[in-house]
Design brief:
The structure holds 2 protein chains of 2 kinds. Chain A is mainly beta. In chain A, strands 2, 5, 6, 7, 10, 11 and 12 form a 7-stranded mixed β-sheet that branches. Chain A has a 3-stranded antiparallel β-sheet with strand order 3-9-8, with no helix packed on it.
Amino acid sequence: DVKVTQSSRYLVKRTGEKVFLECVQDMDHENMFWYRQDPGLGLRLIYFSYDVKMKEKGDIPEGYSVSREKKERFSLILESASTNQTSMYLCASSFAGGENTIYFGEGSWLTVV
Amino acid sequence: RKEVEQDPGPFNVPEGATVAFNCTYSNSASQSFFWYRQDCRKEPKLLMSVYSSGNEDGRFTAQLNRASQYISLLIRDSKLSDSATYLCVVNDAFSGGYNKLIFGAGTRLAVHP
């Protein structure tokens, strides 16, 4: 069965803290993605990666960075968390090619206070 | 104009009703189209792909009108378990060989007894 695992489901962090969100997939997918989802705005792409050590900016990369050292793992980093980064963060993965289904992790709910 | 637009709803319908959701997209070069379902506080999951000829999966029918840049989802004989948010998703191809999924903000459906 397809599995995308986000290690932290619920986090509360203080403004200015460094935050790591980890994502692991077990399907040998080439592509991995980080989205955030906010009410009324839908899912917005932060960063994606189509191969190990490769990354591309999405629509809203400001304030975020990513790391993909291994094919199965894609990390999202908030260098200095701010209150406007309070959101639900969704990791996803897929095989290369536009027709392939994208699979999501269960989401990480981050609150920055 | 948003790249993918949906009526946010909510659509409140009784069990057994037929309900239709519409979605418009702005990029005429979009390549593929999907409907995802998202339950409250859960991750989105693929409901069905949308093909040019239209396609059906049980009680669900999806249609694509490329000329009008319009996608629809019809649910017949609604069940309580159909209550969820339905996301319209468009796949745009970009130079560099990668694809980008663009999500609508979702239409909320509430089916009541």
